[in-house]
């Protein structure tokens, strides 16, 4: 695997073969979001939070009850642009990217926390690999490992997508 440079990323986004094109949309500011070797992705407006008062615990061995338990203790919330989502220390939420991503079969990607957020104690992705052929908004596991609450605003650049060229082609199975 080879990491793509900014020029390679742009070339993949401008491929004439639509079925093999890299799509990151909306890409509102190419100069700001495209760096050499990575694309900054922004925080979306939806979060799945854990209702701690209703959380009794999970046993991964109990496959019959785990999906029901997860539904009972999670809640989806939406945050409007210009309004903060406050993430308290030691809390984990699921978020998503604002951008829709379509990875062609000859590429894969890694999602990494932007260092400016990491220095504040925010971890953006714990499951970082994005398979070739993936299509959709990326789910972000967002955790505040710092000491103070953090205000997260939809539309803020929170993570980087590092793209890699595969030696062959892959196919997403998720």
Can you give a write-up of this model?
The protein is α+β, with helices and mostly antiparallel strands. Helices cover about 15% and strands about 40% of the residues. The strands form four sheets. Strands 1, 3, 4, 9, 11 and 14 form a six-stranded antiparallel β-sheet that branches.
Short description, anyone?
It contains four helices and 14 strands.
- Main β-sheet description: 6 strands, antiparallel
Fraction in helix = 10-25%
Q: SSE string, helix = H, strand = E?
A: EHEHEEEHEEEEHEEEEE
* Rg, nearest Å: 17 Å
Distance between the termini: 21 Å
How many helices? The count is 4
| Structural category | alpha+beta
Strand content: 35-45%
| Low-confidence runs of at least 5 consecutive residues | none
List how many beta strands DSSP finds.
14
**What would the average pLDDT be, to the nearest integer?**
88
Q: Helix and strand layout, with pairings?
A:
Layout: E1 2-3, H1 6-13, E2 23-25, H2 30-33, E3 34-35, E4 38-42, E5 46-50, H3 63-73, E6 74-78, E7 85-87, E8 92-102, E9 107-113, H4 115-118, E10 122-123, E11 129-130, E12 135-144, E13 150-152, E14 157-165
What features would you highlight for this structure?
174 residues; alpha+beta; 6-stranded antiparallel sheet; 4-stranded antiparallel sheet; 14 strands; 16% helix
């Amino acid at each position: 695997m080879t990491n793509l440079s900014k020029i390679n990323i742009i070339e993949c986004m401008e491929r004439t073969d639509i079925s093999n094109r890299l799509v990151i949309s909306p890409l509102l500011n190419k100069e700001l979001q495209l760096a050499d070797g990575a694309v900054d992705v922004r925080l979306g407006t939806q979060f799945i939070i854990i209702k701690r008062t209703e959380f009794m615990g999970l046993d991964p061995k109990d496959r019959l009850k785990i999906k029901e338990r997860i539904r009972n203790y999670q809640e989806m919330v939406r945050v409007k642009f210009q309004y903060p989502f406050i993430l308290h220390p030691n809390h984990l939420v699921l978020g998503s990217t604002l951008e829709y991503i379509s990875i062609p079969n000859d590429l894969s990607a890694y999602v990494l926390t932007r260092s400016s957020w990491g220095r504040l104690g925010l971890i953006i992705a714990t499951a970082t690999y994005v398979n070739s052929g993936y299509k959709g908004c990326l789910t972000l596991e967002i955790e505040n490992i710092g000491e103070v609450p953090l205000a997260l605003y939809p539309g803020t650049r929170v993570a980087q997508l590092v793209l890699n060229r595969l030696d062959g082609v892959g196919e997403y199975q998720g």
